[in-house]
Amino acid sequence: MPHPRILIIEDHPLMADAIAVSVQSFLPQAQCVMAHRLQTALEFLSSPMPWALVLVDLNLPDSQGLQTLYAVCELRSQGALMVLTALKDPEVQEACTANGVVFLNKALPSRAVLAALLNALHKDLSFPAEPLLAQEAPVSHGLPSLSTQQRLVLAQLSKGWTSRRIAHQLQLSEATVRSHTREVLRKLGVENRTQASQLYLQWLLQKASDV
After folding, report:
1. Confidence grade of residue 116 (pLDDT, cut at 50, 70, 90)
2. What are the sequence ranges of the domains in the chain?
3. Neighbour-count burial of 160, counting CB atoms closer than 10 A to its CB (0-12 exposed, 13-18 middle, 19+ buried)
């Protein structure tokens, strides 16, 4: 699965971004597509291109609960289908089981959700220990000390982007991006981009789960 396509059906932008950053931190080649309404999601699902994973929140602005589940199941792709919801309804869980859908509750630790997502994409994938064994205490470290520009650079680093691509995206010189990167590593107290991305990922997931 060289370039897995992932459809994230989630009406909360911060949560959707957190999921995308999570996956792309470990699978930079993954292509994450967002749908904030069921109608948009159904349009994506109707396309002939396959989806490696469809992740759906059941409560959307234009559809709720089992109605959302059945609509997505009707057009489901050959890849994995997962529900990530705050609902604690036994009927919903039973419906997921009956339709071969993985059920995940948003109350789960972020590392457990991430492990389930990556496992669905590739059962033999090995996970770096640090983010999945992270403590449950709030993660901030040196993040508050970063400037706005440095946070923007860090956000792009977390996507696995090169300095050249970040420079083009933010309309900066590569030298400036490299300078910001060095400052980010110093302020976060980490040795490389991967560690910085992991801290940012943990922080973003916690911010999303607090909403």
Report:
1. confident
2. 5-127, 143-209
3. middle
Which CATH number does the domain 5-127 belong to among 3.60.20.40, 3.40.50.2300, 3.40.50.300, 3.40.30.10?
A: 3.40.50.2300
Q: What is the mean pLDDT of the chain?
A: 80
pLDDT of residue 126: 36
CA dihedral 97, 98, 99, 101 (to 10 degrees): 0
Q: Supply the pTM of this predicted model.
A: 0.59
Q: Which fold does the domain 143-209 belong to in CATH?
A: Arc Repressor Mutant, subunit A (1.10.10)
CB neighbour list of residue 107: distance below 8 Å, 6 or more residues apart: 86
Q: Which residues pair with 31 in a beta bridge?
A: 5
